Amino acid sequence: MSDFLKRSVVVAGLLLFSSIEISCATYQGKVGQSRNLMAMGQFHEAANLLEPLANEKNGDQVVYLLDYAVALQLSGKINESNKMLQEADRLVERQEYHSISREAGSLVLNQEMVQYKGDSFEKFFINAYGALNYLELGQPDEALVETRRMNDKYNKLNSEERKDFEKNVFGKYLSALIWEGTKNWDDAYIAYEEAYKLDPTISTLPADLVRSARRARREDSYRKWKKEFPQVKESKNWYDKEFGFLVILYEQGWGPRKYQPSGGSYNLAQLQPVFSQTQLLRATVSGEGTFQSVPIYDVSTAAIETLKHDYNWLSAKRIGAYATKEILADQVRQKDELLGAIAWVAMHASERADLRQWSTLPQTIQIVRVPLKVGLYDVKLEGLNGSASVTGELKEFQKIQIKSEKITFLRWRTLK
């Protein structure tokens, strides 16, 4: 084969490979239809679309397992959802889940060549979502196991001197709810107090601290919080054995979505919030009136802040990738000017931001807590917009049982 023909073949191959790489659908494109189906309430159809992606054993499997787990939960397949979360967690934690060839490919081509292990924030939320699933199944002990795993991950990251890392307040708050729901009063108080130290702005915590301190018979702490929070109006129903609590855990909207900003440095993805029409929840409890949700955790803000925290590390990595491409193109150029130019174009044309993320998470997590006399209740949940007008999203529960001094958990997600 002549030198001219060899060069032509190489040039054609580089251009073809580059065009294929550029045209390959990004993660956001692949899951967009599934998200649209979820928003329309077609959860089974969304799960069916995601299933083959989640079962494909490649470097993208983790991200599709996470989205598939959400689709399964929404379609009522909670146990199957937990299996997907556990598989994703196992892949994330496996130290050997790493490919030198894909890492090298990310330097020469683009960031999506690297196996996806989840953003730092997402690694926590795997266990948080698992805990919510177990509460939905009525299995508080298993839910506590997930909150412990979440806290273990946080402690490990802190031991690595990442002191500015996103605070794991949701894990603390969720574990406090579970402890209280199972009448482990002292453990509940400790967890509420830890949550308050991490984020004193959660509006429900003053009442939580007063109530749990008294329940735990921590008299000094009880007097301290009563003095610090004079606005808290105690109810005798909090401590009456003829009463229990209804707690509704409400997942509102969509978390932020990754996009590739124009003119961004080294094609690093950024996160932008996703607007949701439904902002709040109104719960109507038969014979007891209506109650409105209050936010306890802003998932969207936590995800955005976590990515910002990781930005310096990601920038350094992409600077290295840019330098690698320049060096490789120059080495080719030294032997053949034309092929060097083509290699430079092909490698830089393939560069794009990594848009993979767990994009089916909620925007916020909110709570409704109602003390109720032991018995059976019908509960109607309605979505509200920012003006407190109904949005049409509706969920009804029949004959919900309230037990003495325990918490009955309900869960709902809105997507419009």
Give Rg in angstroms.
Answer: 25 Å
Termini distance?
61 Å
Instruction: Decide which structural class fits the backbone.
Output: alpha+beta
Based on Cα principal axes, name the global outline.
globular
Lateral strand order in the biggest sheet: 6-7-1-10
Q: Which stretches of 5+ consecutive residues score pLDDT under 50?
A: 4-24, 95-113, 318-323
Helix content: 40-55%
Please characterize this protein's 3D structure.
It is built from 15 helices and ten strands. It is α+β, with helices and mostly antiparallel strands and 416 residues long. The longest helix is centred in the last third of the chain and has 25 residues, at 311-335. Residues 4-24, 95-113 and 318-323 have low confidence and may be disordered.
